[in-house]
Design goal:
- By secondary structure, the chain is α/β, with parallel strands linked by helices.
- Helix content is 34%, strand content 14%.
- The protein has a 5-stranded mixed sheet with strand order 4-3-5-16-8, covered by helices on one side. The chain has a 4-stranded mixed sheet with strand order 10-13-9-14.
- The longest helix has 30 residues.
Amino acid sequence: MNAGLSRRRLLAAAGAALATPALLAACGDAPTNSGPGTTGADDLKKALPDYIPSRAVTADIPSVTGAGGAASDSAFLSYPKDPVATVGGTPGKGGTYVTRTPLWGSIPPSSGNAYYDAVNKALGATLKLQPSDGNTYVDSIPALFASGNLPDWLQIPGWANAKLNLGAALDRFADLTPYLSGGNVARYPNLAAIASAAWQAGVWNGKLYGLPCFPSAGGFGGYIFYRKDLLDAAGAGPELRHIDDLFALGAKLTDTGAGRWAFDDLWPYLKFPFGLYGKWSADASGKLVNQYETEAMLEALNFAAKIAKSGYVHPDALANNTQQGRQRFWSGKVAVQGGGTGGWDGDDAKGGLAADAQYNRQAFKVFSASGGTAGIELSPGAGWFSYLNKKLSDAQIRECLAIADYLAAPYGSKEYLLVNFGAESVDFTMTGGNPVLTGKGQQEVAQGYQFLVSPPAVTLVKNGLTQVVKDFAAWQADAVKHAVRPLFYGMNIAEPAQYASIEQQVEDTIKDVRFGRKPIGAFKSSVDTWRKQGGDQLRRFYDDIRGKYGTGQ
């Protein structure tokens, strides 16, 4: 649905790592909050750009405002017939800048690339794109840090902050606060149209460093999907009022003789119905409690073990065979499956329909296991950020920000069409009202500029499958009404390094318990070990953070 690697697609590809509320970076050994990263609410307000919504383009399905500052993505069924220009003149001043971004796919030629040439001409500057293999991209960055030879413009995904110790490396990057904070951003209207929440995780120590990529006010790591065609054939309704309704689908949908089981793996998305959002919450007395220590976690694990032992879960899922999970869903071997929202788009529908002509993916509406208030964890407004080299002069930073404003032009604009699809009749043609890459475009157009900065996410048609857009937009519009910001939402917290691995033995035990291989007592024992290994000290660390900087609410 979203052009190229959308924020939803990236969430799925990154294993929903962006839903983690605290973006971690290694720091000293003592449980203190003096490490780099954390910003209090007052300083955050001073650093964030003002939000000035764009009125340049009208969506076919407008955004819907939800709870906790959440809002669904606008949706388009076709590209506007008369795209508007949102940037007057040429933003660049003739400068040349080297960029480095990840790429999943074939790296296009850098010389003789008509797409790069067309975009650079429109920018009035030369961006020398240096895409790197996305699978090893993060591993290549430490060498850049060590050499001191950083590119002018560098993408760093938020989920890699811990590995890169980014909080301690910020002196390498330009402080954008004087240029973009508050009303300063008005100079760049397309950047101003990116919601404040998307900038939040780009703020470190009270200063704005990051330019957001793939921002969305309605991002969710994922949820529980179902095959509507299979439920309809079984006479099973998709409305879940209680967790027992989900379990009841097991008997209705499982037919081992026909090679079909009701469920694939539903974890970790099964946690949401049980009210588990983020790592930490506060109990009735105000004490910080890790999700491992809650009754809700015990209930979620007991339910997962219950369906695992019932015979309703596909054997390959119980064997933790995740590689074939999508194929099992496409072919109808399972009818219900947990997954990232990035897996619900026109490409998924195309693959599913090739396997089964009746294929129809839907997601259950957000529900509560107890039948009470339903909720779903809201992801940070952006989890991918680019950074400008501190060595750039004031004039160069301003030129790069003007270029960024062009790159952040909204879907439906002339600028967006060029940046994402190149030149018409050369790189793309309009087919069914939507841009489709030509053979030349498929060779030359690659996701690069989008990893420098992106406009607000939209949902759009892929492979001509309009109904998929309508279905996702309707689900998201309902889901944002139940959005929950977890504690320490979007805060860059430098968690002490010695606690980096204490969760692993708990997570390993969780897998064994939810697959029915170990009793719930094994999980309780692993949590006791977690506390002894540093969990209680980590609680004090976060208590200190809460007392001095708040909780990101």
